[in-house]
Design brief:
By secondary structure, the chain is of the alpha+beta class. The protein is 15% helix and 33% strand. A hairpin with a 2-residue loop joins strand 2 and strand 3.
């Protein structure tokens, strides 16, 4: 019986880098929230008063990116592509 040197199971590790590259192509790179601006609500330090955010600044591999808030909210992490800046 001859030993098989190349098996499909040897290439399972390739799925992780291919999946990461696919996610990068589809979504971009993550950027975290750095700062935000919101409409004056009468008490800027009171966390019980709801805020309506107007601009969000995210920091990541492509630098600081300021975008308008989505529906008055800023997320903690947002993905950006280099070409869409």
């Amino acid at each position: 019986m001859k030993a098989q040197l190349i098996r499909l199971s040897f290439f399972w590790w390739l799925l992780v880098p291919v999946a990461l590259f696919g996610a990068y192509q589809a979504f971009g790179l993550p950027h975290v929230i750095w700062s935000y601006q919101f409409r004056p609500n009468g008490s800027p330090y009171d966390l019980d008063v709801p805020r309506i955010y107007t601009r969000c600044t995210f920091v990541g591999p492509y630098g600081a990116i300021t975008v308008p808030a989505r529906n008055g909210r800023c997320g903690l992490v947002r993905f950006f592509k280099e070409g869409s800046l």
